[in-house]
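Q: What would this chain look like folded?
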Amino acid sequence: MRKILATLVALLVIALALPAHATAPPGLPGDLTSTEVSFRGGGDLELRGSVISPAAATAGRPGVVLVHGAGTGTRREKLLAEAVAFARQGMSVLVYDKRSVGYSLFKRSYAQLAEDALGAVGTLRRQPGVDPAKVGIWGLSEGGWVAPIAAGRSTDIAFVILVGANALSPLRQQSWATAAGLRKAGVGGSLVDRAEPSLYRVIADGGMFPEPKHDPVPFLAKVRQPVLGIWGVHDLLTPPRETPPIMAEALEDGGNRRYAFRFFADADHAAHLTPDGGVTRLPELAPGYAELVGTWVREATSGRAPVAQVSGPDPVQASDSFGMPPTAWWESAAMQLVVVVLLLVAFGGYPVVALVRRVRRRAAVTPVKAARLASAGGLVALLGGFAYLLYLVMTGGKLSVPGPMAGDRPILWLALQAIAVATVAAAAVTAAAVARARQAGPRGERVRLGLLVAGGVVFVPWALYWGLLLP
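A: My prediction, written as structure tokens:
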């Protein structure tokens, strides 16, 4: 029996261990090879990856480490198209599984992610046939904030490639991205102009937006390596017209003019082809993208990097990004929470008291019909408004689906606005009824109605702030 149990335990251990090691990217073309590696990242966390190289690789070849965009525990397969394309340009490419430890929707550290990238760079520099003096780093989207931090810390990095990178703070970038996605879907008015940026500011004030005020400019100014910046002209996640000039100025302020910026037509945020202006991402890279990387890396690692070069079609950016000033005391996350609780008590107390009376079989009180509408409307506008805004934010920027539209307004948002207007009107009628019945009716009923009216008074500035009472 002991032998059987020992055998079962051994088999279980093997079964559990297999997934951790059998992680080579699937479907690798026959002209490429893959070597599994592991290394230590920030906080001494073990990370695993694959080094993809040409099957007929030559000695002294350059190498590049790929740094993921945003996402918890993103698998290396997400960047397999880039890894294959760059390896076919004669490089060894290290792509690794992104950390999930210490990284989440609400918590992350770009400095720690940079340590992960540096661990990968050190591993790639030790691979057979790779020239350690020719190993660089490639960062996509969020990786565009991480790569400059790593490059500024280590001279082991020979070059930097940034794709869909951002020179703005994460809070400003993400707020613009969600607004750009909504506008791409045809949305206008208070939802995109007022409600969406207000929600981001409150989320950041409440500590639920990681690294909201990270300033990439000082880190870019510390980059001394040659830099290749790549953007798709239909980028809906990074303001493609605003970012490159800021990035160029930061590099030049640091004395670095060895940069080349290139825009690709019919390409999205990741420089993949897009058939619909950035909404849909195709698997294919933009034509000429991989070839540009291969040529530029060879030039950069031989001391012939282009100087202050910008080329390609003009990017498409329908609207400017907007500043995200700190919240005032009355719009802070804490105050918003207080107001929400007050409104829930004011609007929710009316039906709760009625239910308690019915359960206790107390004598019914002649209801104020408008009070019922004010109570129900206030609760729907409050809870429905936040639910809809959070849905738009969580679906993320260019993927936001506002639902059926009436002109440039989502029908759901129009319905919430109509309910908000009805709530204010019903609260006003209820207030008039309370004033007429000041000396009549049970005292408890007057208190209940008075609380409802007070909720209606608070509701007006709250609904104005969130755009429910604005066009």
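Residues 333-360 form the longest helix (28 residues).
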